[in-house]
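Me: Here is a favour to ask of a fellow structure person. Could you put it straight underneath, so I can go through it closely?

Assistant:
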Amino acid sequence: MSWNKTGRTMSGSYMGLPYTGRVVMSRVKYGGTVSHLIELFSPIRISNEDRKMIVVNDDFYRMA
């Protein structure tokens, strides 16, 4: 499976909150790990702020 998940749907838990969204961009970080910028289908509230996008490391998601 490719490290680039752009355009695919992901779901998981971000800071204890469930999310589902579409991957806007995947990138290889320094050291070889991969992170994904996810545009959420429904905003999640973190620190009294609604987030519409989050960055998730490759180890913390599941393909929806």
Q: What stands out?
A: The beta strands are 9-14, 17-28, 34-46, 49-57, 62-63.
